[in-house]
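Much of our argument rests on the idea that a fold can be written as discrete symbols. In the encoding step, the backbone of a single protein was reduced to a row of integers, each denoting a local shape. We regard such an encoding as a compact summary of how the chain folds. The record that follows shows the chain in one-letter code together with its fold in token form:
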Amino acid sequence: MNATVSMEHKNRRILNELILFAFNAAVWLALYLIFNDRLPGTIASHYNLQGEANGWMSKTGFWWMAAGLTVILPSVFHFLRLADKRNANNPAFGLVFELFRWGLALFLHGVMLSLILDNIGRSIPMNNVILGGFGLFWAIIGNRMGQVRSNPFLGFRTPWTLSDENNWKRTHRFGARLMFATGLAMFAAAWFVSQPLAIILLVVGVTGSSIISSYYSYVFYARSRKG
């Protein structure tokens, strides 16, 4: 029975990976076929705090970069998960993990499309798109972070969460609420405050969520030791 369930989960993971890879490759190919001939030979790929282009790369380099970020990177996480034997057949963790990979892929596709549109003459507020998109991604992942179980690469990995399953669960439930709130704040800031301030809020939101959750983990550990 366990062997049958394990095989079903394995087949489901393989199918999920094939679907995501095919989707990402299809989006990349569609963007290439639609926009390649319309793009200039040199593409703006980096923007300053005012949203002005201050870094460029070749069109060929851009397409290779887009393929690496949108097609290859999400699949890399699939193979990283194969090393996690504890959660290999955990359906709840699998759903969160797939949400993370799909969210990452959609965020990166959005960034690449915005870069393309900006380079063919459309007026795109690049910093707003990137900051707002990342805030939304952060909120979505935070909304499900409480379902993440101890694993080698995703979550608040402190000495106290890794040594105590209850500490891990409590810390991630707390961190999930914090991430969700800061993600929504980052999304709103991207559109309603100045870009330098929005970037500061993003850095503070990401680092603050991590530091405060890690501190919560330590406090929970210290209180547990006192009984």
